[in-house]
Task: structure prediction
Amino acid sequence: MTETLRPLTRQRLAELLQAMRNVHVVVVGDLMLDRYLLGDVERISPEAPVPVISVAEERDTPGGAANVAANVAALGGRASLVGVRGDDAAGEVLLATLEALGVATSGVLTVAGRPTTAKTRIIARGQQVARLDHEVTTPIPPAIGGALESAALAVLADADVLLLEDYDKGVFNTDLIHELIAAAARRGIPVIVDPKERHFFGYAGVTVFKPNRRELELGFGHGFTAEDHDLMAARVKLQAEHLLLTMGGEGMVLVSDGQPLRRTASIAREVFDVSGAGDTVTAWLGSAMAAGADVAEAAWLANLAAGVEVGKRGTATVSPHEVIALWEDELGD
Result:
């Protein structure tokens, strides 16, 4: 049996949006800088059969765990970010961008000789032509890992929720994961993880395990559908209180102990770019739960926020005003 998640009323939406402005969200994970080179193509290069792109605009935005923190700040919450950057120009740009957005960056540590993960997208006439990745994905040095754990535990002292953003870029290891989950349990705050392959089954005890369908299928080695009751067994194996599976245009499926599968369809005026949609979901889900929403309410609200984000170009944040506007379009009288 599958049920549909109940939409938030206008009054409940307003209550949660107000309460979310008072939460402290700690984000720990792999930081990235998303760079965009935007331009036009007028000719083919005489040197090789490739387009010559005349760059008209350059844009830098936080990516990965940094984008999650930026989304928390954009919705009005207090965001503390913990991760590493390189001692390079990209790291300086990322740090300055985050601070300008109001994200607390005292937990962002610099690793000498390791580049800041940067993804440069070249876009011509609205179409992505190429993406250039600068990154090292080997585990960070043990000394940095210890300092990172200390920084995370310090900001967790007054946190309302912990978000673990794992992109397999080297920040997480088994000891760090276990210590952070245990620290959050001692404080009685929810933990939400956005997982990747390397530590997929290493997050036992989290409140919400939030993969996309491709990640879940890679982890288990077989496919899943939105009404697949094998999702119940998957949640048990992952040892998570809830499994929230994001499925792109098919919306989300929430799997909880003692409950039927609960679904919500995708809510979007239009889909322009799905980059960063998962980060938006994590930020809004965690902030809503920290503000007192139950997991079903938080999942529905996060899905609504994602519907705003996919209508924007590139990695982007979502404001409460935009979420209210989409609610009015979809559910208003």
User: Anything to note?
Assistant: The chain has a mean pLDDT of 93. The chain has ten helices and 14 strands. The longest helix spans residues 295-309.
